[in-house]
UniProtKB/TrEMBL annotation:
Keywords, ordered alphabetically: DNA-directed RNA polymerase, Sigma factor, Transcription, Transcription regulation
Organism phylogeny: Bacteria, Bacillati, Actinomycetota, Actinomycetes, Propionibacteriales
Superkingdom of origin organism: Bacteria
Oligomer status and interactors: Interacts transiently with the RNA polymerase catalytic core formed by RpoA, RpoB, RpoC and RpoZ (2 alpha, 1 beta, 1 beta' and 1 omega subunit) to form the RNA polymerase holoenzyme that can initiate transcription.
Pfam families tied to this protein: Sigma70_r2, Sigma70_r4_2, SnoaL_2
Domain RNA polymerase sigma-70 region: 10-72
Keyword Transcription in record: yes
GO cellular component, one term: DNA-directed RNA polymerase complex
Family, similarity comment: Belongs to the sigma-70 factor family. ECF subfamily.
Name used for this protein in its record: DNA-directed RNA polymerase sigma-70 factor
Domain RNA polymerase sigma factor 70 region 4 type: 107-157
Biological source species: Nocardioides luteus
Amino acid sequence: MDLATAHDGLRPLMFSIAYRMLGSVAEAEDVVQEAFLRMHRAQQSGEDVDNLDAYATTVTTRVAIDTLRSARHRREQYVGPWLPEPILVTDEDPAHRFELDETVSTAFLVLLESLTPVERAVFVLREVIGYDYEEIAAVVDKSATNCRQIFTRARRRVADGTPRFDPSPERREELAARFVAALSASDVAGLERLLADDVVFVADGGGRAPAIQKPMLGAVAVARFLLGLMRQGERFGVRLELSYANGQPAMLTRGADGALLGVVALDVEDGRIVRLHNVLNPDKLGHLGQVGDLFALLGQR
């Protein structure tokens, strides 16, 4: 087991598991680091490993379970809605460039928050990694029969809310471009046509940035609220930029100096935007480059 040689090749696998388990880039990176330390100590003690990928998966998952258990209390005390930290296609860290499919979408990661740490681990290992129940049992220290029951229970819990994204990436990207254009043109009627009647807008400021404390519902309310934010931002040179976050179209908001102020993930179903998740908490954006201070910006009024 040559960890020094295998390090760079293992990081994307380990990070992809930890991120799906935690929904946090910072915590996932800490988990990967701790997992490598444990693997190194095992190597120093003479432990023999046949399958390095499987071993890395096991250690990473176990560390992630422990981390998630300690994180749950902090998230219960979180100011306002909690959303996962976004990963953009422009992220330069090689470990963050794993396949960004529907299982890392913001909507899906929010659903996984309803699972216990062990349920989440079983679900990720089965649904994403493709492990069989015997392999999962060895990771989470349960019987294969118990793991099958845990997976069935977890899948049932998230089934009703599982997002059904439009299958065509081009269609999603085109709708996102129309959304940004309508917002930039202050076209309220155009915005309302792009939003589902029961669209949900959620913002995560975490007490570190100004944000609504409860989800906003409905096309009319969301369209007018967004236009109000746009008019306010225009006075400070705020601009919009299309991107992809967690495998789905996204809108970045940047200050006049280019600093990132927020990432809005857009979930598209049946040709309409059904969910908007706006991450404003600067602590969740630092891995993406320079981050602006929204409180200070608004204080210039």
